[in-house]
Amino acid sequence: MPFGFALHPYFSTLSGKDETLVSLPARAVMEADEDLLPTGRVLDVTGVMYAMFDLREPVPVGNLKLDHVYTQLQRNASALIDYRKQGLRLRISTSEDFTHMVIYTPPPEEHAAYFCLENQTCSTDAVNLAAQGLGEIAHLLELHPGQSHSGFIQYAVESVLAARG
Fold first, then answer.
1. Which residues, 6 or more positions from 150, have their beta carbon under 8 angstroms from its beta carbon?
2. CATH number of the domain that residue 15 is part of
């Protein structure tokens, strides 16, 4: 049984779009077609060409216009949402089987006070990518009769003020 698992939570821009920052421990983003589905091409965000997608350092959510799948996540690293005005940080950690993250920021004209940060064990449209011979990029998990699988996503709220003190 091939499968993937994902959560699709929404996060508040509690500190406003300029003071709510996000960072992802990803070295690559997947190119998307006009329907926002991954093409199978993986773009290196660590170089100059696609540096505009680099979220390894904190970036204000208000500076982003994204609906993209990130991959090549750094092992044992966490995604972070930093609420500067409140002195809070949300640390998102996962088991190693979560190999992809989607970040979605609503268009500015929506005046939305949220964004999405979604941990996934596979790429968006993974079944079709795997059928095209892109199984490694798709990262569908597979279970055989009698097998089981488990993993985790952990959300931890930290006080940045206490860490400084």
1. 95
2. 2.70.98.10
